[in-house]
Write a structure and sequence with these properties.
Blueprint (H helix, E strand, L loop, with lengths): L1 H8 L2 H10 L4 H6 L7 H18 L9 H12 L7 H5 L9
Helix pairs in contact: 4-5
Amino acid sequence: IGDCFVTSMGGRNVKAGRLVASGMTFSEAKASMPGVTLEGATAIGVIGEALDLMTERGVVPPERFPLLRHLYRVVGHDEPVAMPWDSFFGSDGSGAGS
């Protein structure tokens, strides 16, 4: 419970997220936190890369896992945060995706 509290209230991942939300790239945010390990970002990189490869091979359709794909672009490729809300819920709000 303590770990969940720290994570949600201002742990290192929250700090990194706030820095990225303020306009830094993920690489800049990480560099501003020397000595800090961001396990979640490492996991996003590994899983995001695998997801891209599975999509290239036709195993996973490109419209699946939009949140993970976006996080991978932000963390793995230093793209700015631009949440693709319609891909999460469908443009009609049905939850069916695009």
